[in-house]
Amino acid sequence: MGKGRIEAFSDGVIAIIITIMVLELKVPEGFDLESLRPVAPVFCAYVLSFIYVGIYWNNHHHMFHTVQKVNGATLWANLHLLFWLSLLPAVTHWLGESHLAAWPTALYGVVLFMAAIAYFILAHVMIRQHGPDSTLARALGRDRKGKLSLVLYLAGVVFGFVMPSVSVALYTFTAAIWLVPDRRIERVLKE
């Protein structure tokens, strides 16, 4: 089957995720810069999560650009990814409101870890359908950056219970290494 519906559905879900996250932001009580202080942690968590959703949207777009068709396994793997991404608004708000309490910080990392696992599964389901010599398989290669991200997320989860600020630094660093869309796919598509 064609890939148009899965791309349109994914785009819609991702747009809703961003909308839900922004609706969780509260307007400051006052009208001076000091009134921003209470909402700053929630805003910072929102910015980080917005970047993550943007990264997933960009890389999802690039990945689907490498294939012409999908199958039932791809549909389910994609839903699995969207499930974990749909939890981002809840953990983002909890993280921001908690001022880096242990459980919200660790659970934020669990959701990031599971979304990365789901993306990995989706990519490999698509590679299995299109073959080991497919554009996507060639582009992803060994996926060192993806594997490094998993390690960083797990470290962030562990640090969430002992040094939450280190967790957030790890989550931020991981986002930074993915901020530029995955050039591996663009390189292979130019061949």
From TrEMBL:
<keyword id="KW-0633">Potassium transport</keyword>
<keyword id="KW-0813">Transport</keyword>
<dbReference type="Pfam" id="PF06736">
    <property type="entry name" value="TMEM175"/>
</dbReference>
<feature type="transmembrane region" description="Helical">
    <location>
        <begin position="39"/>
        <end position="58"/>
    </location>
</feature>
<keyword id="KW-0406">Ion transport</keyword>
<keyword id="KW-0631">Potassium channel</keyword>
<protein>
    <submittedName>
        <fullName>DUF1211 domain-containing protein</fullName>
    </submittedName>
</protein>
<feature type="transmembrane region" description="Helical">
    <location>
        <begin position="9"/>
        <end position="27"/>
    </location>
</feature>
<keyword id="KW-1133">Transmembrane helix</keyword>
<keyword id="KW-0472">Membrane</keyword>
<feature type="transmembrane region" description="Helical">
    <location>
        <begin position="148"/>
        <end position="180"/>
    </location>
</feature>
<keyword id="KW-0812">Transmembrane</keyword>
<feature type="transmembrane region" description="Helical">
    <location>
        <begin position="70"/>
        <end position="94"/>
    </location>
</feature>
<keyword id="KW-0630">Potassium</keyword>
<feature type="transmembrane region" description="Helical">
    <location>
        <begin position="106"/>
        <end position="127"/>
    </location>
</feature>
<dbReference type="InterPro" id="IPR010617">
    <property type="entry name" value="TMEM175-like"/>
</dbReference>
<keyword id="KW-0407">Ion channel</keyword>
<comment type="similarity">
    <text>Belongs to the TMEM175 family.</text>
</comment>
